[in-house]
């Protein structure tokens, strides 16, 4: 099943069911009006939405043509966004960029931060930045969305709480981050609002690419129309999603509609390219002594997308431009 | 005006208007059913709620007796909780406890972290902890709640966005925090769900104790019935609320219903006592070489309350017990 949110001028938008090939959509006010409302009562709502989804795919119900420009983030706002950093090649490279070593404990203790979730940018919404000199960077990631997760859940029991998946552009202001992280309290200014992909999908939509813990597909990032990276999301992920959920729930329960991010998808094999500029710059420094690739400028565009093994877009594309 | 949320078995509860002396309440479904709904449309909803509040205070409408045991947190869940740490005597002492110096920049650059807001404990809800050995501590703070705050707002313009105030118990697991903060990504496991006071109030309820930037009243914390601290919230607050809001909004707008905390209220003059155990322990170490006061045990109770200059409770009391 694929779900999205239509921008209707309100804060939460209108929930829509979207067909598999992302061409048709149907409003479902008789079932739920918002995606949060679905997560709040997943067991009763999801089967009814699945029914609409099947009918839409078969052409049994007449939907309307999906208007990509009118899509809000699937969650225009959410109660929780916890972002892991499970690809250690990313962690190692980005830390190297700010002159920090990666401690040995990072191999066994997941990195995770509490992100801002009061507003998620829509898939085509501009990245508004007051100053280019902040060092604007994209970070392409996979995200899972949970129902209610009990306190102290083990990784073995966490997978069944993953109800939906999508992609995120976890926008980072690189030049603000070193001073902010040095304070120890995580990101407030260094990470403005993130953008979500057009649709969220249930795990079954991924077929064999989903093993209950990781997504085994490449995540492609394009910068100004040029392929910048296509690392395999299922490789080099040191902590899988059930482990990240278990880490987050060690001392508290997680409420329905919690988004948990993989962290920037990154492979040890740098030839597959990068999901953020910072990694590319570090590899340039290692190879040539200095970084040649600048961060994003006003007018720059980023596109983030994941296709199945047949080349069909799963979540639709995040396509954003940096604006003043 | 004073507002609260009745636990009605749903995730968001039912909004109620509470009279000034916290004895009577009225449901207002014709105006709004949730506190978030009020913040979403403050300008149109607040005047109508104020009218109900006036009538309730005058006895013109018949409310029901406020049932303290049935109150949820005013926001049972919220889209954003950003907690500052504006009292530097707290910061200095707590850092000393984990062997860290306080950098000079902390006098000019506010400390703030993004906290979990997917669930706030009600004012009488137990602090459920899986292991006493986590080092359970309370932190008594003042919180402001904003409407929509534009990106890049200056402190001079931020005060008018403060629509409501309340108190929070920002529960901390002291023994998990040093390793977590060393990673630089802030708190995930070290800060489980916080508890909010029974009611939120508009700034005018504070009278002269509110100067548009700070609350000039003592904040009292009792541990197992004994007064543990009564620091003045208006003293030694290095960054006032408009400055904290401006800091948070440097690179992003803040959505209506954002909670911003003062950090643990603390005075340089230690004779007024403490709003958390960690500070008390550090002062013991300085005075005697070792900490005599333990952290909280199962069955321990904490009470946090602020009274006006006539001894009347403003927000009602947070009263919690630590449970397994």
UniProtKB/TrEMBL annotation, chains A, B:
Residues 82-322 form the Fumarylacetoacetase-like C-terminal domain. Gene3D superfamilies: Fumarylacetoacetase-like, C-terminal domain. SUPFAM superfamilies: FAH. Pfam families: FAA_hydro_N_2, FAA_hydrolase. One of its GO terms (molecular function) is catalytic activity. Residues 1-77 form the Fumarylacetoacetase N-terminal domain. InterPro entries: FAA_hydro_N (IPR041072), Fumarylacetoacetase-like_C (IPR011234), Fumarylacetoacetase_C_sf (IPR036663). PANTHER family: BLL6422 PROTEIN (PTHR43211:SF1), FUMARYLACETOACETATE HYDROLASE (PTHR43211). This is 2-keto-4-pentenoate hydratase. It comes from Nitrosococcus oceani C-27.
